[in-house]
Amino acid sequence: MSLRFSDEKLKEVQRIIEHYPQGKQKSAVIPVLHLAQEEFGGWLSTEAMDYVASVLSLKPIEVYEVATFYSMFNLKPVGKYMFEVCQTGPCMLNGSDDIVKYIDEKLGIKPGETTADGMFTLKTVECLGACGYAPMMQQGKYYKEQLTKEKIDAIIAECRNAVAAKN
Amino acid sequence: MSLFSIFTFEFCLIKMGRKLLLEKAHIENIRFYDVYRREGGYRSVEKALKTMTPDAVTEEVKKSGLRGRGGAGFPTGMKWSFLAKPEGVPRYLVVNADESEPGTFKDRYLMEFIPHLLIEGMITSSYALGSNRSYIYIRGEYAWIVDILEQAIAEAKNNGWLGKNILGSGFDCEIYIQRGAGAYICGEETALLESLEGKRGNPRIKPPFPAVKGLWDCPTVVNNVETIAAVVPIVNEGGEEYAKIGIGKSTGTKLISACGNIKKQGVYEIDMTISVEEFIYSDEYCGGIANGRKLKACIPGGSSVPILPANLLLTTAKGEKRIMNYESLADGGFASGSMMGSGGFIVLDDSQCVVKHTYTLARFYRHESCGQCSPCREGTGWMEKILLNIEKGKGKMSDIDLLWDIQRKIEGNTICPLGDAAAWPVAAAIRHFRDEFEWHVTNPDDAQRRNFGLAHYADPIHAPVTS
Ligand code: FES
Q1: Which of A129, A142, B193, B381 pairs with B247 at a CA distance of 20 to 30 A?
Q2: Confidence of residue B14 (pLDDT cuts 50, 70, 90)
């Protein structure tokens, strides 16, 4: 198996397991899947899920059935940056449709698609608990709220700059 | 409202605007321990652990009349008193921070701005319940709030409020955070427990209730963030004092997250004595409808509760002013009332389309159905498809009756309340806005170009409305 957590991450797994009483490390599966997704390229391959199973001494199926249930786990590769735009009622009332359309215009991707260069994925999601700051999207760990076209432009530029700076 | 409650209402106006949870949320750096403590934080832990028995704390919560703030409104003290206490078996307090009901973002506000209030409430509540290991189950998307809470927990621990033998009382307590991963259903308490056990979030059949068989089969209390935060003022001031705020069975204060087409969206703490009208139009709260438009409709308690047209929102079918509390919002039952629910207050102006809004909610419930029960798994998808057809001008008159029929067959026929939650918004939309649905069918082209508008939805109500 080529996928492996660093020693530091393995320590983190150990700390997570300590949150639960002895023998209940199955409870760690969601936190450890989050960790795996972050570490292994933003999505969970079968190999990644099998690895999580081995780390927690679970059967692979116990990991698959969890990974497939929760919407934050990506079971297919995604772009380096994911724009997850909320489209539920309150966001729709404040123009979330226009935001989705604008991102499509700018990047040429529809919901569920990734740009050819693998930079951006657009996804529509349901209520993220930011209804009073609509329209909004999640990007990585953080929320981008009260979105406007200008803000979208700025976010896209920021992502591109971050990548350019690394290269 | 009875004469008596009108009197109480007038009386309570004097104390209007009372804040118990967010009073200090604006103080700079209240997020951090030193400031929180300087402002009187952790007094409830001192009081409870040094001067009260666990049962005495529960007794105060009972006296306070506090009702679960997550949506169901069940009396918290009663829920606590159901907790089984077999010898030698651990008990757990689990805080439900899975906030996912569309329109609701109050718990997030509380955790972001005044996280120690939740931690303090949890320690005091854990003492009352005998939970030595308590959890916060937080929705996975609130990832940055996890950091805020982790820091608050570490600070509390460094200052001796968590760990072994807290304040020399002999009581041990640790608090852990568990992140979900995107599933509305995990806000349902038994689904939450399944998820916390590392499984899919499929709700359990009740009984047994979590109070007897909860987390890892041990007695468990699951309470909403706001509920647990409210334990702090209850213990500090006493249950009776807390119960003096509000009207009847709507005691204390309630956080309302207001959104949609209003001027000032945000989280407000109200004491359940103000009218809906004042809440929407006064500058202290929502500041009126945005962009000079008119109020058309509102879902007052999160997406699951019935939508009401402007006229039935502001006054009950009996012509009385509707008040922002459990009883008044529910006045008239489902025929002409709604519910307090989670306090997610969604306002629609006269440019909005009720059919489209209802469609987005149906899509939400289809997306979030766990799939265990066929009526919900299949029915939510059918409703979504039919609503989209009507919205796109491809619907038939019979579709409206079909929608009604489907929602009737979901309601009450599922393991958990998600089925009802999916059925009610559709039912209420048809009940009160049937004209708008029919207009989409009879004017399919028009419906693609413009919306139905305000129509008669704000007309004064003269005669009692029947369903
Ligand atoms: S509806 Fe978009 S965050 Fe709630």
Answers
A1: A129
A2: very low
Q: Are B348 and B293 in contact (CB under 8 A)?
A: no
For residues A130 and A142, is the Cβ–Cβ distance under 8 A? no
ipTM surpasses 0.95:
yes
A109 HSE (CA, 13 A, CB side): 22
Name residues whose C-beta falls within 8 Å of residue B363's C-beta, 6 or more positions apart in sequence.
A88, A126, B384, B388
CATH 3.30.70.360 fits B247-349, yes or no: no
Q: In angstroms, what separates the C-alpha of A132 from chain B's closest C-alpha?
A: 5
Residues of B in contact with A65 (CB under 8 A): 199-200
CB A111 within 8 A of CB B367: no
- Compute CA distances B401 → B397, B405, B408, whole Å: 7, 6, 11
Domain A81-166 has CATH 3.90.550.10: no
Mean pLDDT split into 10-residue runs, chain A, 167 residues? 90 97 97 97 97 98 98 97 97 97 97 97 97 97 97 97 89
Q: What token pair was written down for B361?
A: 């909610």
CA gap B292, B304 in Å, rounded: 28
Task: Summarize the confidence of residues B188-206 as an average pLDDT.
Answer: 97
Residues B242 and B251: their CA atoms lie apart, in Å, by 7
CB B286, CB B347: distance < 8 Å: yes
Place of tokens 């038939």: B396
Q: What is B354-449's CATH number?
A: 1.20.1440.230
Using the atom order of ligand 1, give the atom closest to the CA of residue A87.
2
Nearest to B461 by CA among B277, B325, B311: B311
- Interchain proximity B197–A24, CB inside 8 Å: yes
A7-69 adopts what CATH topology? Arc Repressor Mutant, subunit A (1.10.10)
CA atoms within 13 A on the CB side of A40: 25
Q: What is the DSSP letter of B126?
A: H
Indicate whether B179 pLDDT > 70: yes
Structure tokens at A67: 């990974």
- Fold for domain B14-244? Rossmann fold (3.40.50)
Question: pTM to 2 decimals?
Answer: 0.94
Range A153-159, long-range pairs (CB < 8 A, 24+ positions) = A153/A106, A155/A83, A156/A106, A156/A107, A156/A120, A159/A80, A159/A81, A159/A119, A159/A120
Give me the residue spans of the domains in chain A: 7-69, 81-166
Return the percentage of chain B with pLDDT > 70, whole number. 95
The response to whether residue A95 sits with its C-beta less than 6 Å from ligand 1 reads no
Contact B195 A30 (CB under 8 A): yes
Q: Confidence band (pLDDT; 50, 70, 90) for B72? A: confident
Distance CA B280, CA B216 (A): 44
